[in-house]
Amino acid sequence: MMKFRLYFDKDADERFLNNMSAKGYALKRFFLGFYTFKKSQPGEYTYRIELIQDRDSFNKKELYSLIEDVGGELVQTWGIWAIFRKKGDFELYSDNESKISYYKRIKKIFFCLSMGELCILPSQYSMLERVDIAKYTAPLITVIFLAMILQVYKCGRKIKQLEEDL
Known about the structure:
Pfam families: DUF2812
Order of helices and strands: EHEEEHEEHH
Number of domains: 2
Keywords: Membrane, Transmembrane, Transmembrane helix
Largest sheet: 3 strands, antiparallel
InterPro entries: DUF2812
Transmembrane segments: 109-127, 133-153
Protein name: DUF2812 domain-containing protein
Distance between the termini: 41 Å
Structural class: alpha+beta
Strand order of the largest sheet: 1-3-2
Oligomer: single chain
């Protein structure tokens, strides 16, 4: 089975994957918003998505090995994200301090990406009259910028909530 979803929100993506698992579908692969699932036992897996901060292959292998040691497995990587699953309950972060640090990393990345998009926007809108493709790229970049800023806001809210729970 294949489903299409575009998420910029790792929590929403995890909820989607775990809901599909509850219905008896295990993630097989992911590509550009297309999720391919195979039939499994309902609720067989719990999915977690991790931001791979360190591009050093040794540290990535160490993380993957740590996940395997607790019974998890790497399903797929996509850019800076890794999708893990495990049979039964599964958490990557057990305390609020590590969760806060994690969401701060995500917030920083989305903030930097959104600022890059913001820098591109004026040039796109200035070309609207002269370049036909700008009629498509300017709104697209605007939507991407807004989606990324929304994630910065959501991460900030999540961080604040976690700090209040300390």
